[in-house]
Specification:
Residues 29-151 form the MsrB domain. By secondary structure, the protein is α+β, with helices and mostly antiparallel strands. It has helices at residues 2-23, 29-35, 38-44, and strands at residues 64-68, 74-77, 81-82, 90-91, 99-104, 111-116, 122-127, 138-141, 146-150. It has a single domain (25-150), classed as Beta Complex (Metal Binding Protein, Guanine Nucleotide Exchange Factor, Chain A).
Amino acid sequence: MKSKLSLFTLFAILCINSISAQTKIIKTDAEWKKILSPAEYQVLRKAGTERAFSGKYDHFYEKGTYYCAACGTPLFSSKNKFDSGSGWPSFDNHIGNNVGFNEDHRFGDTITEIICNICDGHLGHMFMDGPKKTTGKRYCVNSLALKFKKSQ
């Protein structure tokens, strides 16, 4: 019984890893430049940041889902959006395992960069000053990194 369980576990891990490898989107800079606007490219591929209060989703509260502007992966639900007053769209949670995390040392302190787990596009940063009644997290996202689809 023990060896069957171990073989099953190994098989499951291999299947999950092969599925993950198949869904990862890798493109050259030239390919990204063809499908993204210059501003989207600067944010998503070069970890840029749009000016505060300039993004179209900052004060946008329709019901639906926010997708990665580069690859179309669902990232955030409008149910998790809140007004942080920061000037960027803010969410207290993300969808599934579609958002990844990296340490970012560019600004002197270590902060948490958030990326799309499918295409590695830069989305913004996560801070621990979000709503305490939910997760306490604030996913501070560039509007240029998002595309919105309204719920039916």
